Each structure stands twice: as structure tokens, then as C-alpha cells.
Recover the amino acids of this structure.
């Protein structure tokens, strides 16, 4: 890992923190392997940006040092609570390519909205380079945001992505404070993404109210986008069950680790570890349940996941309801557009996403999504959640074309929410909802959330979502009241 030289940085510390200069570089952290796209199915491949075996070195060491179980905490719920601390990262690469200019600028526009509509939230922004530092500082000044609410932190590696969600798993530890679990991620779009959690822990480590720590968790192989939570239950995509099983089997090559795994299984399941097939089938769910502090429901059990991460296609609404993506709803709506409306929608989506090809984006999205198997995957997830007792409402979803950056992903599930009692005794319910310049679907999604009593804060995210993610992928609440 290449560490940046000292930068002449102007940063804004949070009101309750007084970091002493720039944090020291952290010890190397896990990048066991990587993929060249945000697809967690299939063969795991190393990204070209991770060279010289550094992506394997630290996690190999952690296999023999870090405890495998009992180091987690209560995972933060998506559907309730007030966000007190939001972490963001302004990266400069997407795998081996520079971050598009329109994506860089689009993120700053989204953050302007967050700074405005989350007036009591503190933000820590980790920036990959001096240009990012300067641009965030300028945004703070130009937006009139209280500089004490934004800490601008230099990254400790020279290449990182914008996808902060997948590199860590914030939990509430036994002492009541935030712990950032550093798991074995399934893909690495930036070589420096593995430094974000320890950087945040160093910046916030002396916070008198919530000293944030970070800890390696070598037993987990799951991206943050493939786990959702309400206040009663955790939802994990089936891909992460397979990946964590494979991770545990790798660790079990060490006899001492194999014994540790078998002892955990016996304690967690109440069953002997004699039937190894049964043990390996049950282990991942038991591990997630143990480390995240709530019962686990595995989704997409009989079908493929509808998307590479379940937060692209499902949203818990409180503790009793889910919004589940529905391509057929989106396709019917788009096909009903008049030629003039379709042309206008193409223009607005292209403008929002920074796409200059002049192609029929509506037609490309329909062609990408309009097949029976794809629809069946969404319907199966909805059926599983309904069977588990949840009320289901469908919402439009269009996942786009993988690894092309040629169309926005129209996901209205990939949002962030707050739900908390206001000072006047009423309940505040906010959703920070991606918009893409596709007015007919944007408005439909807004109305669905408003119908569930949410105040909608629209975020223009076409230039971000064409890289296959949206606001939940590119932000993380690392301190939440719940």
C-alpha cells in the first residue's frame, strides 16, 4: 500500500472531537481478494489495482491472530433511529479507471443536500486526494454549513472508490459505543478502501461521547450492501451465506481454527458437529446471528439474488413492512410513455447521469430487465419476506447494464432513512431518495414513500448510479440513536 505524503490540509474537526494532527497510517488491513465488478456471484478475481499480493497479506496474518466469534455487536437498523454521525468517502477511482468528473461533482451535489437536510448530523468525509479535500472544504463554505459539523480527513492510501458501505459493518458494542467491523469484502474497487474503517476509528477514537473503534473480523465475507436490518431482524442475501461458508472453510484448513469453528457451532446450534454437511449449511447464518445481535432471515434462498446486493432491491419500512423492487412495474410504466415523453425522459436521464451518447436509455433499460427469470428473482424475494410475516409493497426497479457505465441504475430501494420522535412529540420520518431524471418513475417512487408517511428528500444520483450504486452504497451512519 502506498501511503500519501503529508498534505497541507485544512480540515474541520467536529465540535466534540479534537484530533491531534493527521492520523498515523493504520496497520495493513484485509483485502483477501477482489472482483472487477460489483457482482458477488461467480469466481472471485483480483482487481488490477491491487498488486504485489498486498491484498492477501494482512488477512492471512489475521487468520492466525484475530478471534473468529464473539467480537461483533448489535447491527444498526436501517428503518429506525436518528443519524448522529455520517461517514462519506470522496474517492478518485472505480477499479482501474479514474472516477468520472460528473460522478465527483454529482457526489458533492448530493452531499450539499445531506448537509442541508440533516442539520444535527456530523459528517466525516475521507478524501482520496488534495483536490477532494479542497472541493469538500469549498462545499462547506459555499453551502453555509457550520464547519464544526464536517471533518475533512485525508485518506491513508492514494487510490480509493466512493463505495464506503461495503468495507465495514458498524455495530453497537457491549460498551454502548460504535465498533467498525472490518470484514473480508468480496470486491475491491479501490486499493485504498481497506483503510477507511481504521481511519474513521483514529479520527473518532478520542470522542468523549462515542469513541469509535475498529476491529478485524476474519470470519465474515459479506459486503455491507448485502445486509439489511430493522429493529427486530437482520436480512442477509444468500450470496453472503455462500461466501461466508467458503471463508470459514478456508479458515478451517488450520486445525486450531477448525476446532474453534466446531466449538462455536455446537454452542450456537445445540447440536454436535458430527454431521459436517449440516454444520457447514447452518454455520453462516448462525455466525451472522451471533455477530450482529438479532435473528437472521436469509433471503433469495431458492432463486438468485435480484441484484448483486439486496439493498438495491429491498427496503425495510419499520418492523412490519418491506418495499421490494419490481421491474415489471417499471417496464409497464416506461412502455406506456408517448414518443415525446420517452424522448424527454431520455434527455433528462442522460443529463442527470452525464451521458452524452444520445442513445435510447429507456430502451436499453427495458431490454436489460425484461426477462422472466429476472422478474422471478424479485418475486421470489417478495414471497419469502411475505412468508416471514411482512407486508409487501412493490416499487419500480431497473438494474441497468453491468460494468458499462452506460445507463443509470434506477433503484429506489437504495436509500437512507431516519425515524425518530421530534421535540414537539410528533414522529419524524425522512427518506433520502435517489432520483435519476426519469420523472415518471421518480415520482412514482416518491409517492410510494409519501404513502408510507415519509418526508422525501430527493437526491439527484444518475451520475453515481451508472457506476452501479446509489446513496446507501456511498454513505454510512456510524453513529445512530436507536
Amino acid at each position: 500500500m502506498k501511503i500519501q505524503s503529508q498534505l497541507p490540509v485544512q480540515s474541520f474537526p467536529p465540535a466534540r472531537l479534537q484530533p491531534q494532527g493527521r492520523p498515523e497510517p493504520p496497520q495493513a488491513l484485509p483485502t483477501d481478494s477482489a472482483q472487477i465488478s460489483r457482482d458477488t456471484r461467480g469466481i472471485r478475481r483480483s482487481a488490477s489495482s491491487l498488486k504485489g499480493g498486498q491484498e492477501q497479506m494482512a488477512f492471512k496474518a489475521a487468520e492466525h491472530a484475530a478471534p473468529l466469534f464473539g467480537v461483533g455487536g448489535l447491527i444498526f437498523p436501517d428503518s429506525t433511529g436518528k443519524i448522529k454521525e455520517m461517514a462519506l468517502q470522496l474517492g478518485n477511482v472505480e477499479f482501474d479507471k479514474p472516477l468520472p468528473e460528473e460522478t465527483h461533482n454529482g457526489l458533492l451535489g448530493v452531499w450539499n443536500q445531506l448537509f442541508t437536510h440533516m442539520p444535527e448530523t456530523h459528517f466525516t468525509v475521507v478524501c482520496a486526494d488534495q483536490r477532494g479535500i479542497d472541493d469538500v472544504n469549498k462545499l462547506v463554505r459555499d453551502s453555509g454549513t457550520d464547519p464544526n459539523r464536517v471533518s475533512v480527513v485525508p485518506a491513508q492510501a492514494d487510490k480509493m472508490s466512493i463505495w464506503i458501505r461495503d468495507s465495514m459493518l458498524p455495530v453497537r458494542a457491549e460498551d454502548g459505543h460504535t465498533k467498525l467491523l472490518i470484514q473480508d469484502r468480496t470486491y475491491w474497487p479501490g486499493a485504498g478502501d481497506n483503510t477507511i474503517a481504521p481511519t474513521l476509528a483514529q479520527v473518532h477514537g478520542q470522542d468523549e461521547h462515542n469513541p469509535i473503534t475498529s476491529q478485524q473480523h476474519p470470519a465474515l465475507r459479506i459486503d455491507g450492501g448485502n445486509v439489511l436490518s430493522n429493529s427486530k431482524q437482520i436480512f442477509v442475501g444468500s450470496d453472503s451465506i455462500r461466501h461466508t461458508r467458503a471463508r470459514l472453510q478456508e479458515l478451517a484448513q488450520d486445525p486450531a481454527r477448525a476446532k474453534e469453528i466446531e466449538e462455536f457451532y455446537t454452542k450456537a446450534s445445540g447440536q454436535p458437529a458430527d454431521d459436517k454437511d449440516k454444520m457447514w449449511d447452518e454455520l453462516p447464518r448462525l455466525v451472522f446471528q451471533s455477530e450482529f445481535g438479532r435473528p437472521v432471515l436469509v433471503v433469495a434462498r431458492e432463486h438468485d439474488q435480484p441484484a448483486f446486493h439486496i439493498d438495491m432491491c429491498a427496503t425495510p419500512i419499520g418492523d412490519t413492512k418491506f418495499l421490494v423492487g419490481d421491474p415489471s412495474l417499471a417496464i409497464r410504466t416506461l412502455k406506456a410513455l408517448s414518443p415525446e415523453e420517452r424522448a424527454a425522459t431520455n434527455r433528462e436521464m442522460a443529463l442527470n447521469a452525464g451521458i452524452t451518447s444520445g442513445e435510447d436509455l429507456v430502451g436499453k433499460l427495458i431490454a436489460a430487465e425484461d426477462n422472466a427469470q429476472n422478474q422471478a428473482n424479485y418475486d421470489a424475494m417478495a414471497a419469502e419476506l411475505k412468508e416471514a410475516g411482512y407486508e409487501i409493497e412493490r416499487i419500480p426497479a431497473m438494474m441497468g447494464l453491468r460494468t458499462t457505465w452506460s445507463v443509470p441504475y434506477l433503484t429506489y430501494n437504495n436509500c437512507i432513512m431516519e425515524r425518530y420522535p421530534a421535540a414537539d412529540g410528533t414522529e419524524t420520518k425522512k427518506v433520502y431518495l435517489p432520483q435519476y431524471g426519469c420523472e415518471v418513475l421518480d415520482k412514482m417512487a416518491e409517492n410510494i414513500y409519501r404513502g408510507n408517511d415519509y418526508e422525501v428528500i430527493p437526491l439527484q444520483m444518475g451520475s453515481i448510479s451508472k457506476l452501479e450504486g446509489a446513496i446507501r452504497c456511498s454513505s454510512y451512519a456510524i453513529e445512530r440513536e436507536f
In short: The mean pLDDT is 88. The first helix runs from residue 54 to 63.
